[in-house]
Write a structure and sequence with these properties.
The structure holds 2 protein chains of 2 kinds. Chain A is α/β, with parallel strands linked by helices. Chain A is about 30% helix and about 20% strand. In chain A, a hairpin with a 4-residue loop joins strand 12 and strand 13. The two termini of chain A are about 25 Å apart. In chain B, about 15% of the residues lie in helices and about 35% in strands. In chain B, about 45% of the residues are buried. The chains are: A alpha/beta, B alpha/beta. Bound molecules: flavin-adenine dinucleotide, flavin mononucleotide and FE2/S2 (inorganic) cluster (FES).
Chain lengths: ~300, ~260
Amino acid sequence: MAELNVNIGKLALKNPVMTASGTFGYGIEYADFMDISRLGGIFVKGTTIQPREGNAYPRMAETPSGMLNAVGLQNKGAHYFAEHIYPEIKDIDTNMIVNVSGSSIETYVECAEKIAELDQIPAIELNISCPNVKQGGMAFGVTCAGASEVVKAVRKVYPKTMIVKLSPNVTDITEIARAVEAEGADSVSLINTMLGMAVDVEKRKPILSTVTGGLSGPCVKPIAVRMVWQTYKAVKIPIIGLGGIATWKDAMEFILAGATAIQIGTYNFVDPTAGIQVIDGLNEYCDRHGVKSITELIGALHH
Amino acid sequence: MKKYMLDMKVTANCPLHNNYCLLKLTADQTLPEMLPGQFVQVRVDRSPTTFLRRPISINYVDRETNELWLLVQKIGDGTRTMCESRPGDILNLLLPLGNSFTIPADKGQKPLLIGGGVGTAPMLYLGAVLNEAGITPTFLLGARTEKDLLQLEKFEQFGDLFVTTEDGSFGEKGFVTNHSVLQQVAFDQIYTCGPKPMMMAVANYAHQSGTACEVSLENTMACGIGACLCCVEKTKEEHHVCVCTEGPVFNIEKLSWLN
Ligand SMILES: Cc1cc2nc3c(=O)[nH]c(=O)nc-3n(C[C@H](O)[C@H](O)[C@H](O)COP(=O)(O)OP(=O)(O)OC[C@H]3O[C@@H](n4cnc5c(N)ncnc54)[C@H](O)[C@@H]3O)c2cc1C
Ligand SMILES: Cc1cc2nc3c(=O)[nH]c(=O)nc-3n(C[C@H](O)[C@H](O)[C@H](O)COP(=O)(O)O)c2cc1C
Ligand code: FES
């Protein structure tokens, strides 16, 4: 048994395998299929201060080795989360991390403040990269100035571990990563979905109600690995890698490229036990290669 | 209800006409309880173009042989690949998913079960369960042509059967909402599954005639377990609810469908 535990800022993870926001509900949806407390962490659904109904149906289109989504941050709001969902999930024995979104600096700050009150939420993931909302979301994440401004404002009110989730829909992701590191982010997670589109040729109409949506799944993995590799060279804070991870091998690619931990997203829909398979696979890989602690492998490509 | 991920073995694959197949699946363990209206998510491993699981209704559960039946229409690569399964093949399923049709407590009730196209699939199991509860259901099945009418003998085992085809090749010609049985019998409730325009017509007919009505929706899904929020339908109050967890069965009064 290799040591799989890693740290992200002040956050201790029992292993580097977590599940991605918007793909794992609040964790409990998967509890019948696996022991969810074996995961290093669970990133719950994107949360905003006010409730949101999200975008109109259809919100999903399957694409080669992946899918487009345009959910648009449907959620019942941070107050509902605190009162009704938090009590249900707070005792799950893993890191329950809330993905925080907003449409303005003020709403990001208000949401982060509300989540900061919850003792058993040890971290937030600041989503400045959602391509499916008209205001806020990705608008902040695609310029250094926008990213700095929102991270700076949230840092003032949020003392626990703050992970900032980056958008791949930029010319140079390392600039944004540096900008948020400079404003006090404890970690960056990358990537969020890539802006894409699909057309129904029979109806001669876009499939998604919003025309464009976010692409995820195995098809984006090589792009995500490349971005983690570039970002590792640019920042000192730990990186959480995601985008298309389905197996332990995929996870290991991200770790060797520079990720301290990883998240599994879309693939949970195909195999709800993917997280467990990846944990077991990483452990077996470490044993096979005589690696005592997985931390030895983080960014090994660069050494 | 607890959900399971099961590797299930194909015991039989019966082609039905050209475009459908009936898959019979079994598992090592006794199949868990499954309710009419619920569905399964099938992983399709042998089709490189099929990434997500495919939602398929529970067509029938044979407790004696420990078999689950799925009635599959070949639409695209996923369903076509499913229909190529051979006895002995293993399919990975998540089940049972979603809510279920309401079974009336009163045995004197007269329910009408309307199925259109492959939407007849869940009506068979619903009919079987009603029958078991001492209620005789009436089935009204609609199809484009005689070729699209499936499992008629099986339906007849559980209740009275009426049929419409759009081209008149079998039963009454026209749509289900025009069938004469609707004029002849007063039904206490209607259950329906099929193409959305048909379900909307049935829903409006039921609403106008003051009959309780449940519809089973087939919105496109990714996870099937309430995690992704891709499958939503709008309620009367303009809220988005997940078809995979709060449905697939809805009372029509809850939806924004009625004229
Ligand atoms: C709860 C539920 C129960 C279902 N029960 C059954 C069943 O018992 N038997 C059965 O044969 N099918 C059933 N379906 C439909 C079935 O899931 C789809 O036909 C299947 O996913 C199509 O996959 P494919 O790979 O063959 O086709 P794809 O290549 O995915 O699709 C082919 C074309 O059909 C369209 N399409 C696919 N799925 C849908 C959909 N759900 N609604 C509207 N358009 C769609 C696509 O946009 C595309 O144009 C059910 C669906 C749901 C949600
Ligand atoms: C249906 C769906 C909903 C998502 N919702 C969110 C969200 O609310 N917040 C967020 O930061 N990312 C969201 N994402 C993005 C994922 O967390 C992840 O960044 C992306 O899907 C890439 O990883 P993957 O390829 O492993 O899925 C969503 C993705 C999907 C497919
Ligand atoms: S299909 Fe994912 S929530 Fe319904």
